[in-house]
Amino acid sequence: MTNPPTQMSEKFEQLDGIWLLKEHLYQENTGQKQLWDQIGQNYYGRGQFNRQPPADYRDAIGRPGGLWNELPIEREYNSILEIGCGDGRASIHLSKNRGLDCQQYCGIDISEPQLRRLQVFKTAYDFYPSAQFTLICMPAKELPLPDASVDLVISDAVFMHLTKTDLCFLMKEVRRVLKPGGLLGFRNSFHNRECLGHIIRNFARRFAPNRNPLYSYQHSLSEVYDLFEQSDLNDPENPIQIKPNGQYRLLPHHLGQKKVPFAQTINEWAKANNFKANRSVYSFDVYNW
Ligand SMILES: C[S@@+](CC[C@H](N)C(=O)[O-])C[C@H]1O[C@@H](n2cnc3c(N)ncnc32)[C@H](O)[C@@H]1O
User: Whose alpha carbon is nearest atom 27 of ligand 1?
Assistant: First the structure.
């Protein structure tokens, strides 16, 4: 593991290979950290944290696929930054299933238990075998990396957990740390505010006593464009692409713990028929390759 780069190092302390942001610096993200530490301990109730990693990495990561199967791997990536890396699922997929490697891998996540799990997976599966790993536990906002130092920035299923303000700040930071011509890929990152499934679930949540506090902000398609324009990430040389993630929800699959009857069948039908796409697309991927 390497030092946290340069200018922010006095804000961190290292513990067993992870750089931890000093506690008093969490400020308004303290509640979010507690929540994600708790989830990380017992990953969505699956009690995964203390278990031995499965012998086969595929049993640990599920099927991240999608956008990651389109990332050009013939390019050389000296450095990769992963935002909200969790236990490293997306990177394990990119490395083991797609043969991606790099010299420097920096994983940032707010949850220390998730990063500990990533360490266990690194030992078990040796993903990105040539890379020096820097793991940083902090809210993804100000990035502790030098200007123009990263070849590829990735993130999977994280930005819907950030506030709009934090995300705007973060995207400007991504612009700053990305090398000219660098690539970015954000899979399943922007929940579609116009999706009927979300609208129904948002409405039901208003009446739920223990509503899920994880989800923060949903975007319309035009807001996603605006975000990338405003952060100067939509480079005419490397224009960003926005595409539906592949999941469709005219109806939510669950409301609280209750399964919604026929939702899965109806959603599959909507997907197959591209029915009311702007209303049924669940989330957007953004990339620039
Ligand atoms: C749905 S999980 C996805 C994890 C991983 N990317 C994957 O695909 O398995 C969301 C991740 O975002 C992290 N996270 C949530 N809020 C964050 C924040 N403000 N800053 C950094 N990470 C955050 C969580 O700890 C968690 O690991």
Answer: 86
Query: What is the CA(110)–ligand 1 centre distance, in A?
Result: 7
Q: What φ, ψ does residue 118 adopt, rounded to 5°?
A: -60, -40
Ligand 1 atom closest to the CA of 40, numbered from 1: 25
CA distance 158 to 188: 8
- The pLDDT score that the predictor gives to residue 177 is 98
Which residue's alpha carbon is at the smallest distance from atom 9 of ligand 1?
Answer: 89
Instruction: Look up tokens 């969505």; give the residue.
Output: 44
Q: What is the dihedral of CA 244, 245, 247, 253, to 10 degrees?
A: -110
Residues 6 or more apart whose Cβ sits within 8 Å of residue 160 = 189, 190, 191, 215, 216, 217, 218, 283
Task: Give the pocket of ligand 1 (CB within 6 Å).
Answer: 29, 32, 36, 84-86, 89-90, 108-111, 114, 139-140, 156-158, 161-162
pLDDT the model gives residue 32: 86
**Centre of ligand 1 from the C-alpha of residue 155, in Å:** 9
Residue range 77-102, pLDDT digits in tens: 999 999 999 999 999 999 999 999 99
**pTM, entire model:** 0.93
Which of 1-15, 187-201, 269-283 is predicted least confidently? 1-15
Nearest-CA residue for ligand 1 atom 18 is: 139
Given this model, what pLDDT does residue 208 score? 76
* Residue 244 · residue 286 · CB < 8 Å: no
- The string of pLDDT tens digits covering residues 240-276 is 999 999 999 999 999 888 899 999 999 999 999 988 8
CA of 275 to the centre of ligand 1 (A): 31
Look at the block and give the residue holding tokens 């975000």: 227
| CATH numbers and ranges of domains, the chain | 6-192+217-245+283-287 (3.40.50.150)
